[in-house]
Write the structure tokens for this entry.
Amino acid sequence: MQYESEPVAQEDHTYQTFLNSKAWRIQDVGRLISLSDIHPSLFGFQKSTVLWAVRKGRAAVFAGTGLGKTRIQCEFARLISQRALIVCPLAVAQQTIEEGKKIGIEVTWCDRPQQGNGIWITNYEKLHHFIGSDYEAIVLDESSILKSFDGKTRTMLISQFADIPYRLCCTATPSPNDISELGNHAEFLGVLKRSEMLAHFFVHDSQGSASVGSWRLKGHAKEEFWKWMAGWAVYVRKPSDLGFDEEDPLFALPPVTIQIEKTDTRFIPPGELFPCMTGGIRGRIDARRAALTDRVHKAAEIISASPEQWIVWCSLNEEQNLMEKALGDQCVSIEGTTPDEEKISKELQWRTGQVPVLVTKSTIFSHGMNWQHCHNMLYLSTTDSFENYFQSFRRCWRFGQTHPVLAVIMTSPAEENVLNNLRRKELDATLLAEGIVRYMKTTQIENVQQYQIHTETYNTTEATGARWRALQGDSIELIKTLPDNHVGLSVCSIPFSNLYTYSPSIRDVGNVRNYEEFFQHFDFLIPEWLRVTKPGRRACVHVQQVAMTLVKDGVIAWYDFRADVVRHFVQAGWIYDGEAVINKSPQVQAVRTKAKGLSFMQKNKDSSWSRPGMADYILLFRKEEEGEPDPVHTDVTNDEWIQYASPIWNMPVENGALRELPPVPWQDINETYTLNAAEARENDDERHVCPLQINVIERCVRLWSNPGDIVFDPFSGIASTGFVAVKYGRKALMIELKPSYFQVGVKNLKYAETEMLEPTLFDFQQETGEAV
């Protein structure tokens, strides 16, 4: 990972410097050039892309078909190094060589490393010969094709070519919901490891499998993720996506006609009454084969009646062989088993007009080919793969095509579901791409054109009542506005490292890259927290242990978060003098977290992995006494104290299930006895805010504060601590960063003050007159 600045020590830098270091900024490792260094034939958006990519040094150009990626990559290779290697699909090499000549760049084919300077090009199948070679730059043309290769090839690229200083990936816009593809690009470019990308920006869908398909973007991470992407990639469908609106008319796609041709074949599977496709791959293949002869016959009639060039896309070997026989000398057919030299030769025959028809598969030629010379396509059959369909379709229907495009799709009554599935995927992909451009556009225009359009703003606000004061903003900055020795008690549930991230703000203490960065951020608060606390008074800090995961940490284990919190408080001058352990139901944890060590299945399979559930802790910290003591006179009875003094505060459990609350709510701890957090939930929240149990707060407030004391919470959430403080005749001082939580917290404080308070002895006691 490269960042413009690494996380820094608190004592050497300001808080703002630290916040800047948290931002995802990708370091430039390339070279500075000027627009005049770039070939004048390139369009404005292409020149700016080259300028940006050369400056970055390691970048990705995700640009739509026909937007000139070949010229961009040739210029990148020429301007950033004296010795560069371009890697591409087999048949794309000659096309790249020819395009390079048009802008005065010599690109030379090789299947083994060559001596001397220059720009060399090879194909992915030959890449293993180049391991350890001394190239200064490497360009992956049609880089999204890597997911079609075996894992060995992907691993080889990421591990064996990481020492090449300059790297560029070029492909038509990748699948935006293919996490594996985006992660492979980021890791190859040295931006971020795939596992780190998943851990920070994505959440694992516990209802799904363990595959990459069960990972999805965190709600709060959407904007942050695509801004991070814009730091090392451009995602371009048209020039205006990079701010070149005036060039859009030059890249208008021609009209396209999609003609559906249905055969009369009525494929009825065994046991069915009507034409349909049974589930799975086998059902689809059976339906295609049943209509094979009819499709080939009708397709041959359509093509033979046309004097123009055609490309026929097949998906089965049988249909390709039948189509080749039906067309005879009118076509060349290229299969996967066709030798490489023959593939190149046959494609050239068709492209130069020596034969009118090319019969092939999308798995062979769907990536990278510029076939604007042809504007007629025929799909002899279709599959559910939208990517293969999209890529093959865009070989002809692309910028630079000067004729209306015709696409004929052969199908049968039994295959209608396949077409409907492709239409749905096409709509989903279009909407998703539009959303991504919305997220990335501003940032990538700023990056590519090197000027700032938008700056983030940070606002604070305040609300007050007769017995409470609530501040919305960054607690680390707002706590500095509080006077010394101001707070009588603090009760707080701090963020549990980066276990839960509730906002995308870099000011969010829980929005961190790793465990270490959490404490670097948290350390700015702890000394100020001590300063505002009255001598001899307490902070009650709620924590739990933090699990390590295989994806994020490389091992299934625990961080000793409880011990590390204690260490950091003590280092800041607090006295650590006790804790209470809050028992929790392991069955509830097993359901919520899907923890391997708690499952019955794992216990019965291999109980060496089994472990107890995680408890909660209330860590007790005290400020050293000085001057006249300010004692606390509690209303806790001796019988209650016997229960409170127990090191374990139990939840009521009966036969493994929670029983009803006892009549007096503070006699036991109930995990579900909290304020209602539903109001605070936003659309992008991954989980509800986790309010601390009312029972716990009540014990702390009654034991360690006096009526009229100020009770403080720097991470107040929906103001559970403030709610209890007001209810028990104390004054509440709350700080919350997230506006939606703050607003609900204010409602709860108002409710506690106006609706829930009944006359008590506290109302007749002398007020201290101290401001909240």
